[in-house]
Amino acid sequence: MSMNGHTDGKSNGQKNGLSGRLDRSRLQLFEVSGRVNEDSVSTLITAIERALAAGRSQVILDLSGVEYMNSAGLRALVQAYKAAQGRSGTLQITNPSPRIRELFALVGLDTIFGVGPDAYPDYSALFADTRFALQRQAHHLG
User: Model pTM?
Assistant: First the structure.
């Protein structure tokens, strides 16, 4: 995983995500890998719901390891996005593969999860800095 991003706690001003200052006490990174489909997605959704219930309402999904996603996976992302908004939070996608970017564009989710030159920012450096003790979880699906 590349190590570039924001370590000063400020976002890069993208339209669709973590605008203003990042609240480190509310951040939760999920590193998702494998196949996101009807057989695997419930584990991820449960983990996101737990994070939101614990007050971690700024959710970042690192999709760099996702090989495949079907309509159940897309539906789950929209569900998670709405759940985060319902808790005055955000859901941000980072590092999607070209295949997943294409899928988002095909179904119109790129207008929600990433648009323009700052789409899909890489927050990995923020989570790599151990001084901040930020919450991260790895989820290998399917």
Answer: 0.72
